[in-house]
Amino acid sequence: MTNQLTVALDAMGGDHAPYMVIKGASIAQKRFPKIHYIIVGDQHQIEPLIDALPELKAASTLIHSDQQVKADDKPAVALRSGRQSSMRLALDTVHEGRAQGAVSAGNTGALMAIAKFVLKTLPGIDRPAIASFFPTMRGETVMLDLGANIQCDSDNLVQFAIMGNVFAKTVLGVLKPSIGLLNVGSEDMKGNEIIRQAHNILKEINIPGRYHGFIEGDDITKGTVNVVVTDGFSGNIALKTIEGTAKLYTEFLRNTFKSSFLAQLGYLLSRPALNSLKIRLDPRRYNGAIFLGLKGVVIKSHGGTDALGFANAIGVAVDMITQKSIEKIQDNFSTISSTLLNQSS
Asked: What angle do CA 242, 246, 252 make, to 5 degrees?
C-alpha cells in the first residue's frame, strides 16, 4: 500500500468489544502499516485501550458514541432509533468519504439494514448479498447469499453470480471463476421455477469466467466451483451446517486422542500434522463476510471472534478497497446488463 487508507471500525459491536476490536486493529496495523482508523464507540471504554497501544493511537481518530446496536435489536428498530449508534456513525463516515470501508462485528440484520439505507445499492442491483469464503478440497470457495435475502427471484440470483464472480477474481485471485447454482440436483429439470429461470439466464449471458450449472450440497466442500450462488435461506443453513460439522469432527478427534495411552502417544507423534490442519481450518483465517452490492465496502465480522479474527476481517476490507472491487462489480454488471438488454430487444 502506497497511500494511506482509512477504515472505520464499529468498536462496540461483537461479544468481546471493544477490547477485541482495538486489539484486532493493532494486529492488522502490523500487516498494513499505512492504515488509518476511525474508531467509533464509547471513549471512556476505548481510550484506556488505545493509550496502551501508542502506534495504534497515532494512527487513529476517535468518534464518541454512547449508543450501540444490541445483538437482539430488530433491524427496523436499529435503523429508526440508532442514528447516533457506533454502527451508524461508522457507516456515515464511508458515505461522507472520510473512510473507504467499515468493519463491524455487530448485529448482522441491523448492519445490513443501516448499510443499505446509508450507502444505497449499486445501479442495477436490487439487493445486497452477504458473501464469504472458506476452505475446500480444491482451495477456497466463495458463497453468497449467506442470510441477507431469505427469498430471492431469478434476477437476484443472477446478480449474486455476477458479484460473486468479481469477488473471486479480486480477492481470491481466480482468473476465470467457475459459478454454480446450489440446487437439489444437477439435472436441468430439478429445483423450483426461480432457480431454473436463473439457470437459463446464466447459460445465455456472457458472464466472465465459466458458468458450471447446478451443483448439490456436497459440491460446496468439494470445491466443484469457485462461486456458489444461492438464496439467503439455503446459504445460511449450508454455512451453519459446514461450521457445525467442522466442530463435530474436531470434538470427535479430541475425544479419540484422549481415549487411551496409545492414542495419546499417537497424538504426540502426529501433533505437527494436526497443528497444520488446525491452522488450515481455523475459522479466524476466513473471518469477514462482505456485503456485496453496496456503494461502499462493508465487512461483517463474526460476533464471537477474537482479536486475530477481527484483524483478518479488517484485512478483507483492505483487499476489497485496494482491489477496487466495488468499481469492478459495477463495470461487470453494466456490461452484462447491456448484453441482456440487447438479447431481449
From this structure: 140
